[in-house]
Amino acid sequence: MYGLNAAGRTALDRLPEWKALAEHREELGEVHLRELFANAPDRAARYSLTVGDLHLDYSKHLVTDETLRLLRELAAATGVAELRDAMFRGEKINNTEGRAVLHTALRAPESAVVEVDGHNVVPAVHAVLRKMQVFCDRVLSGDWKGHTGKRIRNVVNIGIGGSDLGPAMAYEALRAFTARDLTFRFVSNVDGADLHEAVRDLDPAETLFIIASKTFTTIETITNATSARNWLLTGLGAGQEAVAKHFVALSTNAEKVAEFGIDTDNMFEFWDWVGGRYSYDSAIGLSLMLAIGPDCFREMLAGFHLVDEHFRTAPFEENAPLLLGLLGVWYGNFHDAQSHAVLPYSHYLSKFTAYLQQLDMESNGKSVDRDGRPVSWQTGPVVWGTPGTNGQHAYYQLIHQGTKTIPADLIGFARPVAELEPGLAAQHDLLMANLFAQGQALAFGKTAEEVAAEGVPEELVPHKTFRGNHPTTTILATELTPSVLGQLIALYEHKVFVQGAIWNIDSFDQWGVELGKVLAKRVEPALVEGTEVPGLDASTAALVAKYRELRGR
Ligand code: F6P
């Protein structure tokens, strides 16, 4: 038993620490950031933290010392530290699946000992990393050849969810570190258009498919992998024997990999204690390792590990993931915020928020507690956002002047990537000026008096007024390097952990994705053959009939 249930304690919203926060929220009322800053000139300095290469400014939050103290007390009362330590020890904290949660072991140094059922898992982690490295060296040097003797120039990762989003996001993020003479594509959607567009201009003789699936039963991935195999064999005019040179698998399921026809020598293993959405620094990162090379991959793992150690050891007052998790609880549970925007001011982080959507929403989108009892408090937020400055010309209007409370993270880097030519690198200051300006405008707004003083006609004053008081965290680093990316992801992973611990939910299962999968399997024959699906509701039955009519069936 973990968290709130450990000592048979009361429900979260009946804890004295929860009630104290609710009362404190009442007392603070609609206090404005303008006032909080006016009362504490050193606020920016006091409400900032440095972890590794990440500088976090949380001064633009609707909190006081008292708020932060009460939030930390809530963390203590809900057993966040105990659950964290149990996770790092390899205990089976994923209680609905009876599994340990050990993505932290994937980036532990070789000397570390992390036991699951009395067995140290770290040597196996490093053995797989070495196997990945040997494979990458062979492909990158041209020693690994395709069926016709040509070297590999194209790498297509086929996977979905955690078997796609991590490597695809990190590949984009670290483009500047990638082998530019190789082509990388990521195929996830069962819509045949995805695979079609990914391979239509590739030479099968030079193409390697990486089939990434923890379970190796995911219908989208197996369907796409089968089509990719057909494309390859047809293109090469070869038989099954060509598969060994063009297909490798990343999975926990050797039996299914062999069943598909991939030699298990070409399989890179991971384990059931790695959740899909926490898996991209396992074998699932093979495409990324090919792209950035083994050394950069290890640098990235070191970045993850740095933040793991920070989360494990830093006192609550200085613990960045704990702080971010608590701020999310503050807004979600005490300010009625429904969503959380992640706004990276880096084009390279174009898939960062999509990655975080799975991490956060698949983890904390739950409405029963660890014991299956309905919760009476809000859990995970809707996570959304796209890179600045594009969003500024689309949806920032709503954040600035809409009716909703939307806490946001603004992420930026002091330096542009090194390879930009000087003219383009010079644009970086403008990019970052926008980040800082948005944080400022969101927090402090523009009062009616200020607007009127500019001579704005009276009837337009309300339209041009900015309420402000929109909370943001600003995360700054010198440069987007492999290590910094690892640090950022680990920061969010542990933030999500903290929130799940407080809400007393299992952040490591995802039963909510199952029903749709089962129903799709039942509906598909009805679309193809017109067979009747027993018990199909009237609306879906009518849609199925319409679909068949429109398809001319
Ligand atoms: O459907 C959800 C999910 O199970 C995710 O949690 C996972 O990342 C994804 O599907 C892919 O699963 P697999 O790696 O087993 O193909």
TrEMBL record:
<keyword id="KW-0413">Isomerase</keyword>
<dbReference type="InterPro" id="IPR046348">
    <property type="entry name" value="SIS_dom_sf"/>
</dbReference>
<keyword id="KW-0312">Gluconeogenesis</keyword>
<dbReference type="GO" id="GO:0006094">
    <property type="term" value="P:gluconeogenesis"/>
</dbReference>
<feature type="active site">
    <location>
        <position position="393"/>
    </location>
</feature>
<dbReference type="GO" id="GO:0051156">
    <property type="term" value="P:glucose 6-phosphate metabolic process"/>
</dbReference>
<protein>
    <recommendedName>
        <fullName>Glucose-6-phosphate isomerase</fullName>
        <ecNumber>5.3.1.9</ecNumber>
    </recommendedName>
</protein>
<dbReference type="InterPro" id="IPR035482">
    <property type="entry name" value="SIS_PGI_2"/>
</dbReference>
<keyword id="KW-0324">Glycolysis</keyword>
<dbReference type="InterPro" id="IPR023096">
    <property type="entry name" value="G6P_Isomerase_C"/>
</dbReference>
<dbReference type="InterPro" id="IPR035476">
    <property type="entry name" value="SIS_PGI_1"/>
</dbReference>
<feature type="active site">
    <location>
        <position position="517"/>
    </location>
</feature>
<dbReference type="InterPro" id="IPR018189">
    <property type="entry name" value="Phosphoglucose_isomerase_CS"/>
</dbReference>
<dbReference type="InterPro" id="IPR001672">
    <property type="entry name" value="G6P_Isomerase"/>
</dbReference>
<dbReference type="GO" id="GO:0097367">
    <property type="term" value="F:carbohydrate derivative binding"/>
</dbReference>
<dbReference type="GO" id="GO:0048029">
    <property type="term" value="F:monosaccharide binding"/>
</dbReference>
<comment type="pathway">
    <text>Carbohydrate degradation; glycolysis; D-glyceraldehyde 3-phosphate and glycerone phosphate from D-glucose: step 2/4.</text>
</comment>
<dbReference type="GO" id="GO:0004347">
    <property type="term" value="F:glucose-6-phosphate isomerase activity"/>
</dbReference>
<comment type="similarity">
    <text>Belongs to the GPI family.</text>
</comment>
<dbReference type="GO" id="GO:0006096">
    <property type="term" value="P:glycolytic process"/>
</dbReference>
<comment type="function">
    <text>Catalyzes the reversible isomerization of glucose-6-phosphate to fructose-6-phosphate.</text>
</comment>
<keyword id="KW-0963">Cytoplasm</keyword>
<dbReference type="GO" id="GO:0005829">
    <property type="term" value="C:cytosol"/>
</dbReference>
<dbReference type="Pfam" id="PF00342">
    <property type="entry name" value="PGI"/>
</dbReference>
<comment type="pathway">
    <text>Carbohydrate biosynthesis; gluconeogenesis.</text>
</comment>
<feature type="active site" description="Proton donor">
    <location>
        <position position="362"/>
    </location>
</feature>
